[in-house]
Amino acid sequence: MTAPALPAAQGAALDEGGVYRTLFAAYPDALVVADGAGTIVLANPSAAALLGYPVDELVGMQVDELVPDSTRPRHAEYRSAFGRNPQARPMGKQTELVAKRKDGSEVVVEIALSPLHDHGNALVVAAIRDIGAYPRMKQALQRARYSEWLAQIGRLAVDTRDPQVLLDQVPRVAAEALDLEVAMVYLLLPNALELRIASMAGAMPGEAVGDRIANRLDTSLGFVLSQGRSIIVRDYALETRFTVPRAYLDAGLTSALAVPLSDRGRTIGVVVVRSHASRFFGDDEVRFLESLVNLLATSLQRVQSEEALGHAQRLESVGQLTGGIAHDFNNLLTVIQGNLQVLGDLPLLASDGQARELVEAAGRASRRGAELTGKLLAFARRQVLQPVAVDAVDMLKSLADLLRRTLDQRIRIDVDVPGHPLDVLVDPSQLESALLNIAINARDAMPGGGTLRFHAERCAALPGKVGVQIDAADASAGFIVIAITDTGSGMSAEVRERAFEPFFTTKEPGRGTGLGLSTVYGFVKQSKGALTLDSTPGLGTTVTLYVPPPRETAVSAIPATASRSIRPGLAVLLVEDDAEVRAVMRRFLEAFRCIVSEAPSAEQALLAIAAAPRFDLLVTDIALGAGMRGTELAARVQEQLPDIAIVLMSGYSAELLEADSGSPPAWELLRKPCSREELGAAIARVCRADSAT
Among 292, 307, 322, which residue terminates a domain? Predict the structure, then answer.
């Protein structure tokens, strides 16, 4: 290879050949000189470093051996074309160039070719540069690697339904992608006072998976939670925003990056990566870890939503079953209660005190049975509610005063409510019963005393696990949150899962029916609200009710109408498919001196009306076997007899709810089992309403 001549003044002092040999050897780019046949005749150390071959091994190799198999034919064509027209030019203007290393790996490069002539020999020098060595290219490659890691976690998030699998993988991926020694996931416990180490990669002094860390503002975790944003620690030894544990410094930890883990705007944990070296965390690193954390949060939200939906579906199935059972029981109880009441009025029992006591005891038992079916219907969301505007603040204060007088004096009761009213749209008696049920459960969980806390506030945005329970249309006006917290024994995960199921209880036999929380669940759901249960063994339980506020239209209580005497000789058509229930109702009506005609079906009732010119009152069950329903019968009868009064009965409250929404206001709805007095009051109301029109 002929070197160009140096100026004479310099040439006298320098060895030209030595200078160019030194320049060739020291040049930072890989330089390879090949002859016309493509055989390498010279290579510099940079070429050896880039391609992974010793210099003496490169010399004598064919250039084609440094080209990936897939591109060798194209490379051969290019080399042939260059031989026909050799001139200095760059390669790869139209395609990406890749060099093959000795170990089989590939590196993206750019190549510049220059023809040389040495004593008549045609040579080509190729200057090869690793594009990845460029700062911008390094950054682009690093971003690409981050994207690959995120794609890997994204695929895992889609494929797995076990959140722990993702929790275990996130710190490993974070540590490997960022080339750090330690990565950890901390999750905030429901009490918000502690965080639990859910998973980790690497080792931390004094910390292990499952450990609990206090959530204090003077700690790094507490600081991140309070700030709600990512923070960078450049040097633990110089940190002033929070207290650094001495163990961190003794272990040689220097820098860190922490990102909050959020669930629909609520911070639920922190992901932290730590390094023994002083690391610079730029925007790319922060964005990568934040994206990784967002994937984890989305996966946890999805699993949580699926679990909540599955639980709600299971409870819905149980509710449908219990609602049907309650309907059948109500018909049986109607017969039992009715006959007991008729039996109690017999003159023979007036002189037999023991017999009267037995009848009264049976009556009390049947009423308790009716209360039990009422609770089943409450769980099944089949009870008839009368929602009105209720001030939750006033109700909580009143309830707290009552509980202070009745509960164990070792239980402290706190009320945390705003100084202004918080109106909710609920049935007031059912809300009070629900809160009392929760308070009694809390009392039983604190046999040695503790604190029972009531809290109420307005809530504009619902947490994720609540949003899945409520239709978007019902959530538009926001909700009032009523939370009841105790410091009792808490519940295990297994107990929490079944807490709202009817008849499930952890209490001793005889101390509970297992219907307390199930009726609360049914009441809140039927009121177009939602509820959550957060509990930790040994730390206590929080039951949170999300109930709707009143709508724009004012809601007022339905005033009770006083009973009035029933006109003797009232012509009544009684329609009931159950013969024993029909017999009880006939006795009740005859006790009111009504003239009663019976029909076991709607079709026979219409025949009776066609045969008789006049009836004053129709008393009909809604469910009449396989034929026409009672609501349709009532509508057809009223077409023929516009002045007739209507009383609808059912032992299944869902039918009453449906009838209530689709029936004229003048119709009276009566739930079975009913007493003679309740039937009489319903008849008096509907007949008075009818006469008023």
Answer: 307
